[in-house]
Design brief:
By secondary structure, this protein is an alpha/beta fold. The protein is built from 13 helices and 27 strands. Strand 13 and strand 14 form a beta hairpin. The two termini are about 25 Å apart.
């Protein structure tokens, strides 16, 4: 450990390095919890290219939790016609090969109060930045990290303005590394990555009139599986521009794979776009920009070390098919933010932070393997030479909503506290009963005459949900919270409860008898289940909360 420097230019509870999608989400959530935080980002502003346009139900639940669902949905409607199809074609003008989704929310409408959504990072990041700032988050763009050192009491950082080269020192209790796939912090603290090989890819941003080629189809994502090109399209609202991400191209004359990054001339890129569109040479195509990137699938061996936590691409990289990378990073931020808040305000022991790695690393690894299996097995088998076996594909909603956490952050005495077996890390969100460690299922309730989702009860505290006959658990939780100053609220759910539900619906979904209860964490994960009435309620609740908060 390095000794703490006695004087610093600035002190902050949490320093977030990286101000893109995941870093800004971390700042938004911490600011919502009242945690002082500072974002430093080497770029001068938010995203300028429309990446990461697909967001899952779980992600939208997180943004609902932060109170920004409505503003994001309004912004999304300005960019895309929502709930479109995801289809594979030989070319946009040519043969349709397969519809993966006729509409993107097909079959999952009842699983959440939110819907899968399309919005680009160009549209989303300014919302996150503004909302975080309005809640107290501070952002320094055009500022890069120079050095980082940790001691027993915190972390000392030196940052530098890219405008005038001025440096200043920052003292933080904790650091969140959201600095991307090539994370400087991850390398500095010696955490290695493992996974599959990577391949060179490009994204071509272009203008062209595609209205006639698209016709009356509502197409959200179009995969091109062509003998000469593999990639996918997304289009602007007016079908006058878009981008084509290309995984692999084959020379039509020799049949050999072409080095994508060797020739990025407008002429070559126009040829790629024309092939994918299947249009004539009369169609005018203008190249606006070309980006090089790597399609990779890897996961960090650890998600944390000391007071430093990896989130997003710093912790895992995933191919772009399905939007798994950005969504998984947002889930990282959600898992970490409330734990930091409780440790910083003294509600929880610092050992609660150990559960971040124990929970998110197995979930991220499972998701990475699923994303890679889709990429390599379905869309881009010619784009990778990796010979490692592929994961057995799971239904997407199981990956999005079904992670099961095995850690000391939940109480399931029959589970391996650090199990990371893929088969035990996921459950079907439609299953009759939700296991401890999984996201509590969505239920439509009525509270104070207003329709809500049960997820709206999960905010900045743990909440005890008592079944219709479990009033004593509710009363005991209120008494214990008041006496012991615990971050715990309590609600009865049932026909005559604080939150009104159809008889038996809550009990069946959450796996408890009519006189039982569950404790749910601020992130909506079921942390403890009461199925027996043969125990002292206050004593049981106090013991459970002590364990959940790392106090005993």
């Amino acid at each position: 450990m390095t000794a703490a420097t006695p004087m610093h230019d600035q002190e902050v509870s949490v320093l977030i390095v990286g101000g893109s999608l995941v870093g800004l989400t971390t700042s938004l959530l911490l600011s919502t919890y009242g945690v002082q935080n500072l974002v430093v980002e080497r770029h001068v502003g938010t995203a300028i290219h429309p990446r990461a346009a697909s967001f899952h139900q779980r992600t939208m639940e997180i943004y609902r939790h932060a109170g920004v669902q409505d503003v994001i949905e309004k912004a999304a409607a300005l960019e895309f016609v929502q709930n479109g199809a995801i289809v594979a074609v030989e070319s946009l003008s040519g043969k349709e090969l397969q519809y993966f989704y006729k509409s993107w929310n097909e079959g999952v409408e009842d699983l959440s109060a939110t819907s899968r959504l399309f919005i680009t990072q160009v549209g989303l990041e300014p919302i996150l930045r503004q909302e975080a700032a309005e809640r107290g988050g501070v952002q320094n763009y055009g500022t890069e990290l120079v050095s980082l050192s940790e001691d027993d009491d915190g972390v000392s950082a030196v940052v530098r303005s890219r405008d005038d080269e001025h440096t200043r020192s920052i003292r933080a209790r904790y650091v969140v590394a959201a600095d991307g796939a090539h994370s400087t912090i991850r390398r500095q603290i010696g955490i290695e990555m493992g996974g599959h090989g990577s391949s060179d890819c490009i994204t071509v941003y272009f203008k062209a009139d595609m209205r006639e080629m698209i016709g009356d189809r509502n197409l959200s994502v179009v995969y091109v599986l062509n003998p000469h090109l593999l990639g996918f399209f997304r289009f602007s609202f007016d079908a006058g521009s878009g981008f084509l991400s290309i995984f692999s191209v084959t020379d039509p004359e020799t049949g050999e794979h072409r080095n994508l990054v060797a020739d990025l001339s407008d002429e070559r890129c126009i040829d790629y776009v024309r092939t994918a569109l299947g249009c004539s040479t009369d169609t005018q195509i203008e190249i606006e920009n070309v980006q090089q990137w790597e399609a990779s699938a890897s996961s960090a061996r650890r998600y944390s070390k000391g007071r430093v936590f990896l989130v997003g691409d710093a912790a895992h990289t995933m191919p772009p098919t399905g939007g798994w990378g950005g969504n998984t990073g947002i889930a990282d931020a959600h898992n970490l933010a409330w734990k930091l808040a409780m440790v910083l305000d003294g509600s929880a022991d610092p050992s609660l932070l150990d559960t971040y790695d124990a929970e998110r690393r197995p979930s991220g690894l499972m998701t990475m393997e699923q994303a890679y299996a889709i990429y390599a097995g379905r869309y881009a088998e010619r784009a990778t030479s990796d010979t490692k076996p592929l994961a057995t594909p799971l239904p997407p909603e199981c990956v999005e909503l079904g992670s099961i956490y095995h850690s000391k952050g939940v109480i399931d005495d029959n589970a391996d506290p650090y199990g990371d077996d893929e088969e035990t890390a996921v459950h079907d969100p439609r299953a009759p009963m939700t296991p401890v460690g999984a996201r509590g299922p969505h239920l439509s309730l009525l509270r104070n005459g207003t329709p809500i989702s049960i997820h709206d009860l999960f905010r900045d505290k743990y909440v005890l949900l008592a079944a219709s006959g479990g009033q004593r658990w509710r009363d005991a939780a209120i008494s214990v919270a008041a006496r012991s100053d615990l971050p715990l609220s309590a609600v009865t759910v049932g026909p005559n409860g604080d939150a009104i539900a159809t008889e038996g619906m809550f009990e069946d979904s959450y796996g408890i008898p009519t006189d039982g209860a569950v404790i749910v964490r601020p992130d909506g994960v079921v942390a403890w289940r009461v199925t027996s009435s043969d125990q002292d309620a206050e004593e049981a609740i106090e013991a459970a909360m002590s364990r959940l908060l790392g106090r005993g």
